Amino acid sequence: MTVHTYDHDDTLREITTPGGVLRYHEAGAGPPLLLLHGSGPGVTGWRNFRGNLGFFAEHFRCLVLEFPGYGVSDDFGGHPVIDAQTALVQFTEVLGLERAHIIGNSMGGGVGINFAINHPDRVGKLVTIGGIGTNLFSPGPSEGIRLLQEFTEDPTRQRLVDWLQSMVYDPALVTEELIEERWALATDPATLAAARRLYGKAAYAAMMDMMRKADFPMPWAVMHKVTAPTLLTWGRDDRVSPLDMALIPMRTIPNAEFHVFPNCGHWVMIEAKAAFEQTVLGFLTRPES
């Protein structure tokens, strides 16, 4: 089967929400499928999922949301994770989406879990790609997060390359084209300022300290509240969110399945593209007993 290739500009849409303008890519028809990107230098929803859009658009109305603060949608001005959670709620409300499946990459998976807990009747099935849970055996911050902090503090081209190579199992995926594409957006002053609110060393340390002292449970401690059927996907060789992070979500999300892809880093949807797509499609379209 020939998979249709979609164009960036042809699929780009925008809506106005109470927080600001949100941009997104739309393709395909059928049940709504939200695709939520992760964080990191030069990331966008389009760059995370452009390779998968043609496949999933054969079966779903795909909506690739661009979160605030990453250089495409408006910056809401707050902490990027909180703003992403707010943006998702506003996005679904403005578009009138009563119910949708969700695929969330890394941070996007955490945003999807938060949405599934707080709006359980609005989520069909949930797919996460790494990035959730908490370290049980591996040290933290992980190698990938430390390299991300180094770049955010003092952006250089070599630090970007080092971080990109930590994202994948096969370093050949870090091409000159990818480096240049990421560098241009990652060093944009407004985008860099937003990244520092999340990954600057002082901001990160303050967030960790706040979480240690908080009177509310950590995100990984409330995953038992997810009622949606959930597929956890992970790269076996993930150096950003090591595999042991998956153990708590796998055990505590009541209806969770867990699929590990070999010879694969953090970008499962890119590095294990065909296997990921077939696995996720089978999960999303399988009738529930």
Automatic annotation (TrEMBL):
Molecular functions (GO terms): hydrolase activity
Keyword terms: Hydrolase
Keyword Hydrolase appears in the UniProt entry: yes
All copies of domain AB hydrolase-1, residue ranges: 31-272
InterPro entries: AB_hydrolase_1 (IPR000073), AB_hydrolase_fold (IPR029058), AB_hydrolase_sf (IPR050266)
Entry superkingdom: Bacteria
Keyword Disulfide bond: no
Pfam families per the UniProt record, alphabetical: Abhydrolase_1
Full protein name: Alpha/beta fold hydrolase
Taxonomic lineage from the root: Bacteria, Bacillati, Actinomycetota, Actinomycetes, Mycobacteriales
